[in-house]
Structures are given as C-alpha cells and as structure tokens.
Amino acid sequence: MGVDLKKLEKFGFKKYEYGYSTEDTYVAIKSPNGYESNREICENSHESTPTYADTLYDLIKADLVEKVDE
Fold it and tell me: What would the pLDDT profile of 40-52 be if each residue is shown by its tens digit?
C-alpha cells in the first residue's frame, strides 16, 4: 500500500467518506463498517465505459496501480 491516494485528485477523483470516485471509477479505501479495504478499483456503472478503461490506463501509466497477488 505504497500509493499516495491523494494523487488520484489529479485525475478528477473526489474524496468521499469511503474512497475516491469519478463518474465511472471508484477506489474503495474503507468499508461502511469502518475497516480498511484492499483499495480495489471498481467501475461505477453496470456497463463498461470507454472512460473507465482510459482512467485505468492513466492510473497505470502514472504508477498509481500496484500489482498484487490474489
């Protein structure tokens, strides 16, 4: 967990109580019961959007995504 999530704001993410979000992408940092989450990147809509893929690509290029083992 070496990524500074505040850097997400440069990509249009806004901080909310449980994470960071854009129109199509959500990064959970805390679950509603208060426990730390595993910082998964999720899609905010039920259908895939091109901007979600673009956002993921931008975050990977900016070195804000860490590969983790399952």
Answer: 788 887 777 788 8
CA dihedral 21, 22, 27, 33 (to 10 degrees): 30
Q: Give the position of tokens 């673009």.
A: 54
Q: List C-alpha distances in Å: 9 to 30, 34, 48.
A: 17, 22, 22
Per the listing, tokens 């995504």 go with 65
41-43, strands of its sheet edge to edge:
14-16, 19-21, 25-28, 41-43
- Tokens 């959007």 correspond to 49
**What per-residue confidence (pLDDT) applies to 15?**
92
Asked if pLDDT for residue 70 goes beyond 90, the answer is: no
What global pTM score does this model have? Answer: 0.71
Q: Calculate the alpha carbon distances from 66 to 1, 26, 33, 46, 61 in Å.
A: 8, 16, 25, 24, 11
